[in-house]
Specification:
Elements lengths: L6 E10 L3 E11 L5 E12 L5 E7 L2 E6 L4 E5 L4 E6 L6 E7 L3 E6 L4 E5 L4 E6 L6 E6 L5 E6 L3 E6 L4 E7 L6 E4 L5 E6 L2 E6 L4 E6 L4 E8 L2 E6 L4 E5 L4 E6 L6 E7 L11 H4 L7 E6 L3 E6 L9 E4 L4 E8 L5 H15 L1 H52 L6 H16 L8 H5 L20 H5 L19
Antiparallel strand pairs: 1-2, 1-28, 2-3, 4-5, 5-6, 6-7, 8-9, 9-10, 10-11, 12-13, 13-14, 14-15, 16-17, 17-18, 18-19, 20-21, 21-22, 22-23, 24-25, 25-26, 26-27
């Protein structure tokens, strides 16, 4: 039942006309099996720009804001400190878009798009193509493509590997905003009172039209699109049918921005469906409006009244949400292990009985194979071992290191010096008694040939009448 960790946190950042940037931290705590509680508190209020805030964007610990003072400032949201200032005097940054935690896209008033690397915070690429200000940038979830809309009434498709424009679409109208769906299967383009929805291949999917001007659009799920603006209501559409599923009311002025965050941190795609069934798919929805109020909505609870309402003390212009804690890999592993254990409880008993029956036969076969291999190894090693043993024994016998062998060697040397006939076959051994004799492998007894000169060799006589020393015979 413990499917989701007890707490996940996120930060909501709001920019305003009066230059302050407000930050709120939300903590989602699990109360029961299908019940969650949201705590919401103000984290910071910081004024660093000299003009009103045009756009804000956040990803992980990084927070970026652009202003009419033609600067882009970067903050560390975790430490709540200002990190640095970029693009001084390079023109007004009209829109900001993070891709993951690695890159920041900045759309300028002169039509250029600058890509920054968040590791070094240096400009990596400047993509040129638009002839007027860039209104919106949307990076595909894969990170390979990006869409941008401009005041020049065109929408451009960018290949991010090379940083070049691969296609230009003449819309015939000025698109205020473009966004991708969470999975990247479709994208929506906002123009005044209409929202044009396209498939990822560019084919028309649907057009949503309202009576009053739409100022903000946001995908809360893959097929659920939220719109808000001058009508003072937020409509949530089912894109596949075009029907309105929910309507959020109670606003006293126009809606400026819509964001959402899942009630539980996003789980990987390989988590089984029966686990995800216990998690509500409808996220928390955040709205800011010109009545200087931030509202939090829970569609599982009510669509007519917000669950949290915060006064901003300034007129808001833009908003962004970023998760700062998610499900860890260890928790995911535990989740998968528990699910597998529940699924295989009955299967394990069957596997155990089957393995007990087949283990005896498999063990016998394995033992027979091992015995055969051992016998084969012994048979292969026996003749090699015997041959080595025979050579070692023959090397030890003629070594001549003992006292008896030395005396015999001296007598043989004296006898060979006084002899006039053929020398002994071991003359080389007698001439150098101090050196170890040369070792030669002897043939077997049955293969040995008799020496014809051994019988004819005369016995030498001693110098002082002593018995002559015996010549060592072949052993």
């Amino acid at each position: 039942q413990n499917i989701v960790p007890n707490m996940s946190s996120f930060i909501v950042t709001v920019g305003s006309y009066e230059t302050p940037i407000y930050g709120f931290q939300g903590d989602i705590r699990k109360k029961g099996e299908d019940d969650y509680a949201l705590s919401f508190r103000e984290l910071f209020a910081h004024s660093s720009h000299l003009g009103c805030i045009k756009a804000v964007a956040a990803s992980g610990k990084w927070l970026a804001s652009s202003s009419t003072d033609e600067t882009v400032k970067v903050y560390d949201a975790r430490r709540r400190t200002e990190f640095g200032t970029m693009m001084q005097g390079e023109g007004l940054a009209n829109c900001l878009e993070f891709f993951g935690k690695t890159h920041l896209f900045v759309g300028l008033e002169n039509g250029n798009i600058v890509i920054y690397d968040t590791n070094e915070w240096e400009s990596q690429k400047t993509m040129k193509g638009h002839t007027a200000r860039v209104n919106s940038i949307a990076v595909h979830p894969s990170g390979l493509l990006a869409l941008s809309t401009s005041k020049d009434r065109t929408m451009r498709l960018w290949a991010l590997k090379k940083g070049v424009c691969s296609h230009t679409e003449k819309l015939g109208f000025e698109a205020d905003k473009v966004i991708w769906s969470p999975k990247g299967e479709q994208y929506a383009v906002l123009n005044n009172t209409k929202v044009h929805i396209f498939n990822k291949d560019g084919t028309d999917l649907r057009v949503i039209e309202e009576k009053q001007k739409i100022l903000s659009i946001h995908y809360i799920l893959e097929n659920f699109l939220a719109t808000g603006g001058e009508g003072r209501v937020v409509n949530i559409y089912d894109v596949s049918t075009g029907n309105i599923l929910f309507t959020l009311k109670g606003f006293q002025n126009r809606i400026k921005a819509i964001c959402s965050v899942p009630k539980a941190p996003l789980l990987p795609a390989d988590v089984p469906k029966d686990i995800k069934e216990n998690i509500s798919e409808l996220p928390y929805i955040f709205t800011i409006s010109s009545d200087e109020c931030l509202r939090v909505w829970d569609l599982d609870y009510s669509s007519e009244k917000p669950i949290i309402q915060k006064a901003l003390r300034a007129r808001p212009t833009s908003m962004t949400v970023s998760l700062i804690s998610r499900v860890s890999d260890e928790e995911i592993d535990k989740l998968m292990d528990n699910h597998k254990q529940k699924q295989h409880q009955k299967v394990k008993a069957h596997i155990k009985t089957h393995s007990d029956e087949s283990s005896g036969e498999e063990d016998a076969d394995e033992e027979a194979d091992e015995t055969k291999e051992e016998v084969k190894k012994v048979e292969e090693q026996k003749p090699m071992f015997r041959g080595r043993e025979r050579v070692i024994v023959e090397e030890e016998k003629p070594a001549g290191q003992g006292k008896k062998n030395k005396k015999k060697a001296k007598k043989a040397a004296a006898a060979s010096s006084s002899a006039d006939t053929a020398p002994s076959p071991k003359k080389s051994e007698a001439q150098s008694p101090e050196k170890s004799p040369k070792v030669e492998k002897k043939p077997a007894k049955d293969q040995r040939k008799p020496d014809p000169q051994q019988k004819k060799r005369p016995r030498p006589s001693g110098a002082s009448g002593e018995k002559p020393s015996k010549v060592p015979k072949h052993k």
